[in-house]
Amino acid sequence: MSSALRNREFRALWFAEAQSVVGDQLTTVALTITVYSRTNSALWAAVTYALTFLPALAGGLGLAQLADRYPRRAVLVATAVAQAVLVGIMAIPGMPLFALCALVVVARLAGAPANAAQNALTREVFTDDELYLRSQDVRGMTTNTAMLLGLAGGGVLVTWAGPSWALAVDAVTFVVSAVLVRRWVAWRPAAGNGQDTWFSAIRWVAGQRRLRVLLGLSWLVGLAVIPEGLVAPLADQIGAPDESIGWLLAADPLGFIVGVFLLSHYVSAETRKRVLGPLAVAPAAILIAFAAKPNLVLALVALALAGAAGAYIVTVGATFITWVPNELRGGAGGLYRTGLRVAQGLGVAIGGAVAEWVGSATLAIALAGIAGVVLGLPVAFTWAQVRKANRDPASLA
Fold first, then answer.
1. In angstroms, rounded to a whole number, what is the distance separating the alpha carbons of residues 307 and 285?
2. Same domain, yes or no: 158 and 228
């Protein structure tokens, strides 16, 4: 992974993204606390939390196209400046709740083309497939670590300094991102020729079997994240103390970080592609262990192992972007990210409904694992067929 960080452009993109992710978590915590303190309503607090990511779903399919139509460095700088202004306005003390909600929606919409441009531009920075994959390992580990730090530190900062200061810190992170990208990332012309229709990237991906299979592998994550939405009833059911809820939430991302580290250091890019199918099924298979109603220690181990196996998603995303032509990577990347987010959101919602229906969080998690294996095995088998038919897939990109 250190080889990827030796690239000056990637270092700028990497650090800009990492510190911005921390800032985004601060905003999420600040808004949730602000809304709940003013309304004393758990419903409004939950709605506000949803507003921090729902716009990204809509923007991922539409606004991501901007990353192909305009120079990607310019897209990153412009969206960072726009988000800095919007979040800076949110930081004004006494801002009405309606204005806060409206501003967070617009700010998150502005982030959609930035995410697409970041992914596509990183692929342009690295011409070597192996080095590019290592760069995505770095991003995956850093993003998860930054989210944990942001969420953990967000509560402390909001309690100590107040929500306005947390929002102000987030606004500053966007300014830092804009400066880093503008100063250290080379200018490149727009990748697209401007003649493609707005959703041409999505239509192109739909016609590519190997990319459809990769999307299927990524959507399996939707079942693997179901325990995250059930940690409170899970802790209660296994007789764990209230403070264990935080441990249960942290187990998966911590396992993911370890899994990415191990894959990056000890498994080549080609080997990772070869075992992608089994790795994609492994997180769900591990969750079946919850049928035995484990105690807290075993539950933490199972969630950490599932998170470590979930590191396969980095290889899926990197392979997907690599196999898409450069001029379509913004729009295609938006489709990939949106599908991933929708799968995660639906998974958590369905998991909650099933747990309510069967009256058991552990059984719901185990059923999610069984469903993941049943649905994942055909996709894994199809992936093996795709690799066999495309011994040199890079040449077909």
1. 12
2. no
